[in-house]
Every structure is written in C-alpha cells, then in structure tokens.
Amino acid sequence: DADVTQTPRNRITKTGKRIMLECSQTKGHDRMYWYRQDPGLGLRLIYYSFDVKDINKGEISDGYSVSRQAQAKFSLSLESAIPNQTALYFCATSDPPANEQFFGPGTRLTVL
Amino acid sequence: GENVEQHPSTLSVQEGDSAVIKCTYSDSASNYFPWYKQELGKRPQLIIDIRSNVGEKKDQRIAVTLNKTAKHFSLHITETQPEDSAVYFCAASYNFNKFYFGSGTKLNVKP
Q1: For chain B, percent of residues with pLDDT exceeding 70
Q2: Looking at per-residue confidence, does A10 or A95 come out higher?
Q3: Burial of B34: CB neighbours in 10 Å, binned 0-12, 13-18, 19+
Q4: CA-closest candidate to residue A112, choices A42, A37, A15, A32
Q5: Any idea what the Cα angle at residue B94 is, between residues B61 and B105, rounded to 5°?
C-alpha cells in the first residue's frame, strides 16, 4: 500500500544535539509538510515543500531546517535541540486535485 | 496569517446523542475546510471536508456546515458511537496551500 513513513518513531536526545527526522512516501505526491503537535495546541506547520526545488517556512520554523532530497523524501533537522522542542512530529503529503493530507505515524521526540 | 479557533476543547456525550464541534477562522480568503479525526496513538485522518462554494456537506452520520459571512464552520456527528471517541481537528486553507489547524476537541462517547 502506498504510505507515508517516518523514522525514527521515538527519540530521546539531549539539549544541544543535532537531530534529523526523516519522512518517506510512496504516494507519488509532490507536496510534503512537517507539523508538530503539542497538547492543547493542535498541529502547527513548521515547513512545507511543493516540489523538490521548493521549500517554504511555516508558522514555527525557528530552530528547524528541512531538506527535500527527492520527491519521496523530506527531512526535518533540529540543529541544536532544546527542551521546548519536545513534541510529536508529523510528516504529511498531499496532491491536487484531492488535496487530502495523508499523515505519517509520527515521531515522538523528547529533548532532555 | 490565518487563525483558527476551535471549541469546545473537550466534549462528553452519551452514546446515541449528537455532538457538535465549532471552529472560527480569521482570513476571509480561506476557501477549504477539512476535519481530521485522531484516535489515541494514531495519525490524523481526514473524515470530511468542505469548500467555500458549499454551505453544507453530509457523509452518513457526519456533516459539516460553513457560514462564510460569519467565518465559522461546524462538525456535526449524529447517533454517536463509542468508536467516535477521538480528538477532532478542524483546519482552514487558502487554495490547499498552507493548512492552519484548530487546537483540537477531545470527544468522549459514553456507552
């Protein structure tokens, strides 16, 4: 089945460490997104990409960077992790004309 | 940017009753409004959506209404069942670009 996958699924790290979260999809979608989910705050957009050459900041991009290595791969990096980046991170994909967002299973990141 | 507010944050209903979740948005240019359901420990999944040229859309026990003038939209679930228990998120988007989500509603359906 075409799907969206994320690695790792869980990660515990320390303040100041560099972390990379990876997202892969077999849906053939051009559009990919990174969100973080915090209790009571819903899903907030970090970065999004509409094709390999297109990268856009979302609502809360400070402290994060991304790389679109291929149509199927979109990575999120935390250059120097801090405790308030502890959250559940979701990758999502979509494509016109349906535009439904398909989410990955999520990565639970804990920064100590 | 867009701001989406969602109420209530928690909602408890008896099985068989109806549930209504409401969202407001700030950007009148937004023209696409999806609703996602997230079961415990799972990923969000689209359950219904509505575009700004439509006032209401139904799919079996769920329906969404949109009032563009007032800039609010609502999710209605009738004949609730225990499997409807989950967190529900509304979202708003202009031309399917960036999506702005509400803060979520935790629905508990009591058997």
Answers
A1: 100
A2: A10
A3: buried
A4: A15
A5: 40
Q: What is the residue whose two structure tokens read 């053939």?
A: A28
Q: Cβ–Cβ of B1/A45 closer than 8 Å?
A: no
A101 contacts in chain B (CB < 8 Å): 34, 36, 44, 46, 99
CA diameter of chain A: 42
Give the residue among B22, B17, B18 at the shortest CA–CA distance from B103: B22
What is the SS3 assignment for B48?
Answer: strand
Of B32, B49, B104, the CB nearest to A42: B104
State which residue of chain B sits closest to A31, comparing Cα positions: B97
**Residue type at position A59:** E
- Counted across chains A and B, CB pairs separated by less than 8 A come out at 47
Nearest to A101 among B1, B46, B102 (CB): B46
The answer to whether the CB atoms of B100 and A45 lie below 8 A apart is yes
**CA atoms of B35 and B93, how far apart (whole Å):** 12
Q: Give the Cα separation of A63 and B90 in Å (integer).
A: 26
Interatomic CA distance for residues B43 and A92, integer angstroms: 10
Amino acid identity at B55: G
Write the pLDDT tens digit of every residue in A72-83: 999 999 999 999
Residue type for position B66: L
The Cβ of residue A112 has, within 10 Å, a number of other Cβ atoms equal to: 10
